[in-house]
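Worked example 2:
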Amino acid sequence: MRRTVVVLASGLVLLGMVAGARAMQGPGAGPAGPPASSYMPVIEEAFGTVLERMRAAKPEIVRRQRELLAARYDLADRPVGDATMSRGKPVQGGVRVKLPAGATWDALAAMTPDAIRDKGVFPAGFMPLPHPNHPEGGMVFPTFQITEVKQQTGRDLTRFDLDFDLPDAFLPEFPAPIYLTTRPDLGDVSRGRLVTTESYYELFNGILNPKQLEGLRLLVTPFAQQQFNLTADRRSERPSLGVACFDCHQNGATNGATHLVGDIRPQEFRHRIETPTLRGVNVQRLFGSQRGLKTVEDFTEFEQRAAYFDGDPVIATKKGANILERGSQIHDMAEFQELLDFPPAPKLDLFGKLDPARAMPAELRGQAVFFGKGQCATCHTPPYYTDNLMHNLRAERFYRPQTINGMMAAADGPIKTFPLRGVKDTPPYLHDGRLPTLDDTVEFFNLILGVQLTTQEKQDLVTFLRAL
């Protein structure tokens, strides 16, 4: 009798877990079940079975995302002739978001948000961007990051179930240069190398004090994460030590790696998050694009305790959460992060505005638009071009809620004001990376803010942004 009861109870638990898994998969995944749980599904399936099933599904997942991007954007490699990032990578130019049939940017700008919504002509590229596989989610790295980390350390950041989706031409330069607030005289201290456990000591011993060096060591040390760990429900073919902070924030900047925010449920409402740069965190007062964390220490601790595991401490315990000590380890990591400076901007004066003796006419005209008609400076105040606040753009005024590749495009909510210093080095733009170029970003805000910029004013504004 006891054995029968135990078997029955186990069956009920399994049924509950399967129902929870279906709820987390999003709309259209199967028969309706109970409401989605706040907890991640805990289903132990033989790893070989998972590997075979997800590898078989991968081509269709990749095809679906490629078709979405192709419908939204022109992603041809067409760099701007006279603009490069700090180490020379070409900057992609032009508006790459595709217009609806028969529409023009001027015609859209003349319409009200209600009219755009009712006629269904909001450009698809301005809609929230789904994760490469939104129902699955998780950290995904560009190929150049995977290749270099594997070559230096032997760790493999490849996922067997999906690939990164955006072309390399629209991502930050790699490896990114590193500028230190404490040693501006040294310029780029990375020497053109990616900082990992293999190279950090050679590059920074003698430049950092011991506490800062220890903080950097922890930032390049891999720790268990939801998709990269030692358990059977990982998404790496071999058991993995995990990921390091600097696997996404390469050289303290960004490589465009993507994830889903950990603080929203259910799964289909979670937002894609494009990795922000850590440059200039010493002048910032909010961290995390939507969470409003108040210190870089909070951000560092949150990432290790929660964001690495989709905000689920139960899963974190199972997979091997790395609980850092706040008074020493987190403080050391934060101290190094606060040394990361913006790239040089030789045309700016002490107050963060253009020096007329160095600036081109188009840059000066763009600055006038930025501080005037464009209303950009309402939120992006100099010298670092952030007001350290959060704002809700309410882009959902322009479209009806809809499901896109397993993601519910509803509302973004409040997002922090990102600093614009060095902005040409950190494509793509907006918190989810939906805007490939600065030209796209100007068009987006021209429509969202309703400021009615002319074609010339938009071009001048982009030219100014590249000078920051």
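Residues 1-31 have pLDDT under 50 and may be disordered. The chain has 14 helices and eight strands.
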